[in-house]
Amino acid sequence: MAFELPKLQYAYDSLEPHIDSKTMEIHHTKHHAAYVNNLNNALAGTGNENKKLEDLMASISSLPAAVRNNGGGHYNHSLFWEIMKPNGGGNPTGDLADAINRYFGSYDKLKETLSNAGLTRFGSGWAWLVVKGSELVVTSTPNQDNPLMDVADVKGTPILGIDVWEHAYYLKYQNRRNEYLSAIWNVLNWEEISRRFKLAIH
Amino acid sequence: MSFELPKLPYALNALEPVISQKTLEFHYGKHHQAYVNNLNNLVPGTKFENASLETIIKEADGGIFNNGAQVWNHTFFFNSLAPDAGGEPSGTLADAIKKDFGSFAEFKEKFSKAAVTLFGSGWAWLVKNGEGKLEIVQEPNAGNPLRKGLTPVLTCDVWEHAYYLDYQNRRPDFVESFWKLVDWKTVGARF
Ligand SMILES: [Fe+2]
Ligand SMILES: [Fe+2]
Hints:
The complex is a heterodimer of chains A (202) and B (191). Chain A has 202 residues and is mainly alpha-helical.
């Protein structure tokens, strides 16, 4: 069974003005779709076609670069669409809010740390909020790597990922990655991030 | 002594329609300028304060390497292009391309493939190696072949910022159009 491009749970224009409709449409129907197609092509005939994406990530160092790049691309974008929603933002609540306060001091401090991880990732990549054992940590990865991969510097379960490839923001923000990183907090889906936190934490 | 943004050898709209004025305004006016500014902020008090960009490319790491190499790479890239250029090289470069790649068409195909398949941000390069032979190499992010003892002859910037306003996800279209702007006079003189 081949991997498929997931449908978005909201319209392309519904994250405006923070993320514009054209960016969403190209990002989903072109970039993400290409990762899915290329992943299916890279896996065809290898015996790995029916593996779960998470299992492929865990042994990515022994798989071809095409699986790392496109499998990561498929996983990362699938997560990215889900942790955003129209009229999102606000503050995290409950156990996740407690954990954020415990490991970062405050929600504002988390914002600053995660934004900075995205801003200082040179080239293409992702900034992550990760459950590592019983801790919450911030990290970033190059290209389409992620913290599930055995090659990652910081390994764990990502619960929030921010795409800092230029394609994620260039049509609207051009060179101003900092403005994109300020705006994205307005569309975060904290219910979904909390759900992922509860599944990941032990 | 601080690093400076070199002047572009053509007007910002001179490369239209292959590269739009808007793209060049950002690429040259913002990205290239930011690498220059960042480098000037990073080098004071380090051993690279009075170093050349070539020394920085060969010896520095981290932010000084990234910004220093990106200053050099962009200057080299912008100087490789010209309005009403393109076509094919002549003279010794044409002979070397024939000798090392079989034909200009085969070279073009191989260089384009390197540019299109580089995953993430980076650069495709035509270089001369220690034996004087031409090679094509890919470098991620700020990578520059000088660091490996190779001599750059031509480069294509495939960071998404180089083409996203004009071509979005269609990097192959950008690379195909890039050939219309290659200034073989300058590139041949480098060789
Ligand atoms: Fe993306
Ligand atoms: Fe560039």
